Amino acid sequence: SVINNICEIRGVGFGKVGQPFRLALSGDGKAGSIDISAYFVGKKRTILRTKELKLIGEILKVFSSSPHRDIERICDKVLKVLYSFWNVEHSFIALYDAKIGELKVIAGFGFFPKELERAIYSKGEGITGKTFQLSIPLFATEDELINKTGLIKRIQHKELNFFTAPIRTAEETIGVLGIFKEPTKEYSVEK
């Protein structure tokens, strides 16, 4: 099979690839043969899920290769990985700052420094604050955004969707990842 050939060429055992790939395809890892699972999932979805696995792998490499103390540098690298793999031209990571009691952007990609300075969110404020408060991923279109940074006005020639995801430790939500992405057929809301 193709997967066996790739494993052989890369010098990686099938056991290291098989279960994560099966999990990505089926959602629970309990699917049978990978080739049959890929067939039923379909070519487009299999390719999309494979790309997602690559992205996650690259993000995990950033965390495993960086010193624990330099969180801003790690976050900056994660945003660059999102740009490299998903062409995310504008993104940020905001962490909760206990001193001010609000979320503050500590890393941004595609923003001007003054835009990031304005990006401070109270718990529950806008999509970013709601993601932090509820600890769930959220989606918004441009007309639903409070646009604290001014990014939407600056790049008004582009249609953007905004996705957020909570950043959690085992005990609590500590921040939010925000991604502005142009709608594409591959990542359509209608799908």
Task: Describe this entry's structure for a reader.
It is a single chain. With 191 residues, the protein is α+β, with helices and mostly antiparallel strands. Strands 3-2-1-6-5-4 form a 6-stranded antiparallel beta sheet. The radius of gyration is 19 Å and the shape is globular.
What's the gist of this structure?
Helix content is 46%, strand content 20%. With 191 residues, the protein is an alpha+beta fold.
Question: What is the fold's blueprint, element by element?
Answer:
Elements (H helix, E strand, L loop, with lengths): L1 H9 L3 H13 L7 H8 L1 H23 L5 H16 L3 E8 L4 E8 L3 H5 L2 E2 L4 H9 L3 E4 L9 H4 L6 E8 L4 E9 L10
Antiparallel strand pairs: 1-2, 1-6, 2-3, 4-5, 5-6
Strand content: 15-25%
Tally of helical runs? 8
Helix content: 40-55%
Uncertain segments: 187-191
Mean pLDDT: 77
Number of strands: 6
**Gross morphology:** globular
Largest sheet: 6 strands, antiparallel
> What gap, in angstroms, lies between the N and C termini?
30 Å
**What is the succession of H and E elements?**
HHHHHEEHEHEHEE
Features:
single chain; 191 residues; alpha+beta; six-stranded antiparallel sheet; 46% helix
